[in-house]
Amino acid sequence: MMKIKLEFSGGMELLFGGITHQEIEFPEQYEGAPAKLENLVFWIKDNLLKEKEELFLQDNTVRPGILVLINDSDWELEDGAEYQLANNDTITFISTLHGG
Question: Crosslinked positions for Glycyl lysine isopeptide (Gly-Lys) (interchain with K-? in acceptor proteins) (predicted)?
Fold first, then answer.
């Protein structure tokens, strides 16, 4: 198992029962292959998400308008959902969507 730090902000914490930071243990292997960020996203949906799945996921990925950071770097620079997780990674989800 590896330790992964999760952070939720910009309104994302409201979907997760007010949680802003959480450390979890996540398997290094997922279905026989090294664990990817995509696996973690679905684990978060199944284990931590409290409401409104459609505000977190769209078309089997993180909804547009949610900034995902891997160790403070945009996930687009780190292979996105295909990023291979490592022990002590910090994954941050920040909503950039605001009603008006």
Answer: 100
Buried b (16+ CB within 10 A) or exposed e, 88-100: ebebbbebeeeee
Domains of the chain: 19-91 (3.10.20.30)
pLDDT for 97 equals: 75
Q: Is the pLDDT of residue 66 over 80?
A: yes
Tokens representing residue 29 in the block: 């292997």
Specify the pLDDT at position 100.
45
What DSSP line would sit under 44-92, residue for residue? HHHHT--S-GGGTEETTEEPTTEEEEETTEEGGGTTGGGPBP-TTEEEE
Report how far apart, in Å, the C-alpha atoms of 97 and of each of 4, 6, 56, 67 are.
Answer: 25, 19, 11, 10
> Residues, the chain, total?
100
